[in-house]
């Protein structure tokens, strides 16, 4: 295989590419980003890589979640704190349910770029460029020309988001210890609410016990500051390249290693995972743990070839396979993928994205997802892995900490008619705060049974 550089991807055919009309300015912006400091440290990336090895070996569980398309406007106190809160609460429920530590990765602080099924769309009878994410163009139809300044803006919004997350975590997020932080009033059925309440009470009692014996103060940093890693889809390779930095190893004789220091974890989307394509070429050279989205069109032998390219040393947990077939199709695809990966001797993190294969259009024309299909894909994933002597190691969700109405169902029983109440997303429909907690409670119950 030809030698890798942070720019070798440019020799390969690329999908979902964006052309910035002002190339001069584009080059200038990239130069500027190259000079800006990293957003994360190699030590953090390496730590996550070690934790994901534990996940792959079944000794921890992965919770990854956040917006489909993060907007610059979400870089604000409330939305950041709300997202952090829901992820932390979900992780506590999962720790309780699955009985193992939870590794948390947010789709946040950089989840701006979006792949689209079509480069153009029709708006009011006019053909215009599709919205490609806040780091490329604006959602408003008059703002669709790709603007390089948005890349710079993406860097600074990522930095501000990351900074506030770090500040909140350092300050302890003590409110999770309070019963009032757990709002369960939305749960329609009494028996479900009682059950959730029982779990929360047990959780809070355990946290209180830890506090009483002093285990959650200075002596035990685990409960005071928790790890929360950041991730996004590595789509715009010029931007990713500008944040790819050489890090010397401890051994002076060894060549430096390349890390993407714009985020801890990056994944390749289902639309850009071509074996000979630019994205796979870029991803094979970075030290970060990476994800690959696996949809129904991925042949098992193709999956093995991909793994051999991005992880030739067969490092355990370096790759997270994020399957997204849909509740109706998971049975047709997951078993063959599990068998092929096992036969090839790879030990990966198996995560289930129950969102992207279950998108449908509601009567009112909005994109939505049914909570029941989301749960059905997760429970089938757990069962299929169990049947094959494998293990589901994590979930990958599109969610928000706010009370949006984008997915139907859940314990609040949101109906298709309710969607218009607070439909906010500019891309795919997300689980709201309540529905996200529902997923955690139901998985916890599943593991407890
Ligand atoms: C996404 O995660 O928002 C996405 C576009 O997913 P996929 O690549 O699986 O379609
Ligand atoms: Mn999405």
TrEMBL record:
Transmembrane residue ranges: none
E.C. number: 2.5.1.54
GO MF entries: 3-deoxy-7-phosphoheptulonate synthase activity
Any one Pfam family match given in the protein's UniProt record, by short name: DAHP_synth_2
Catalysed conversion reaction: D-erythrose 4-phosphate + phosphoenolpyruvate + H2O = 7-phospho-2-dehydro-3-deoxy-D-arabino-heptonate + phosphate
Alphabetical keyword list: Amino-acid biosynthesis, Aromatic amino acid biosynthesis, Cadmium, Cobalt, Manganese, Transferase
UniProt-annotated binding residues for Mn(2+): 68, 356, 398, 428
Record note on cofactor: Binds 1 divalent cation per subunit. The enzyme is active with manganese, cobalt or cadmium ions.
Signal peptide range: none
Pathway(s) per entry: Metabolic intermediate biosynthesis; chorismate biosynthesis; chorismate from D-erythrose 4-phosphate and phosphoenolpyruvate: step 1/7
Any Gene Ontology biological process: amino acid biosynthetic process
The organism's place on the tree of life at top rank: Eukaryota
Needed co-factor(s): Mn(2+); Co(2+); Cd(2+)
Residues given in the record as phosphoenolpyruvate binding sites: 107, 293, 324
Family, as annotated: Belongs to the class-II DAHP synthase family.
Name the UniProt record assigns to this protein: Phospho-2-dehydro-3-deoxyheptonate aldolase
Lineage of the species this protein comes from: Eukaryota, Fungi, Fungi incertae sedis, Zoopagomycota, Kickxellomycotina
